[in-house]
Description:
Largest sheet: none
Number of domains: 1
Radius of gyration: 21 Å
Amino acid sequence: xxxxxQIKYALDTFYFLVCAVLVMWMACGFAMLEAGLVRTKSTxxxxxxxxxxxxxxxxxxxxxxxxxxxSSDGAVFPSLGFxxxxxxxxxxxxxxxxxxxxxxxxxxxFFQIVFAGACMSIVSGAVAERMRLWAFLAFAVVMTxxxxxIQGAWSWGGGWLDGIGYSDYAGSGIVHMAGAAxxxxxxxxxxxxxxxxxxxxxxxxIPGSNLALSTLGIFxxxxxxxxxxxxxxxxxxxxxxANNVAQVMVNTNLAAAGGLIAALITSRILFGKTDLTMVLNxxxxxxxxxxxxxxxxxxxxxMLIGAVGGVIVVFxxxxxxxxxxxxxxxxISAHGSAGIWGVLAVPLTxxxxxxxxxxxxxxxIFGWVFLASLVVWGILKAVMGIRITAEEEYVGVDLVECGMxxxxxxxxxxx
Length: 415
């Protein structure tokens, strides 16, 4: 019996770690997606942001974030604590209790780190091309160490949202909508890029520099999402769990496909052309939409949930532009608007979830993250400034913040 328990423990731990690596690979996907959607003079800086924020998330989650998120005891504001804690032993796994550990605590810690990093990556694209690098990194410290873990403790940490029945399997609200809420607060205080909006209400397109990179980024994110959602089953060593993992991965893929096709058709109808940026964000919106519950729906239902997300993201991008909220990557729409839809769609296929609990979860998570982020962004704006000058923006954040350019042979003398 002990041998069987140890084999299952090792298998579930290994599966968990592999899924965590897939989610960590999504950091590359975000970096490529965003690097392609900004101008050449902003590429180095956005790459620096994406790799630095993952390192910051790793350190802050070790120091305080993990303890805050998983030691809440139902509190609204969980107690502070430090580091990871102890590891499981053979005796722990052999207790025979229903709650006996079936994977390493370190595997869980690593899996949760990459979710925190993904949440912060969403902010990066929305504030691109005009934010000071060190202001962004300072915000990343607070976001990954405190703002994200506190609301995560309300649900995944066994807090009050979990107590009222809020359901969010892999984080449509907890990760994606939370990242979008933080991004929205930053965009409001930051303002739009120079030339994005005209004095008479016109909206001027600012094309990205490399849509090949952005497409690669979506493929990487699509692949990483199998770890994002599949790993959230938490185990694979029994028949039911293995079947669940297979269902989750099938639904994740079909939701992405549904979102992409819906955005493809919607953009064609609206613009008379096939807008690749909308198509890419359609796939992303489909993935975000199914993340709140990739297990309960049938494959067809998952495709339709993703398709609704794909339509939503197109209209959301257009609506934010009309409000003069400049989001170069469409992150607020793909992760925020689609994230809200994903959370509210859970009761459509999951009889254990209620619309009231889901709506309250949306309001609580979005409200907390937005208001807390607004305060932090405001403090950073007053203390160190969050936006580069108009002259610096003309030169480009690459040279201003990093002293180098990603494409020097193409940008020399051309701004």
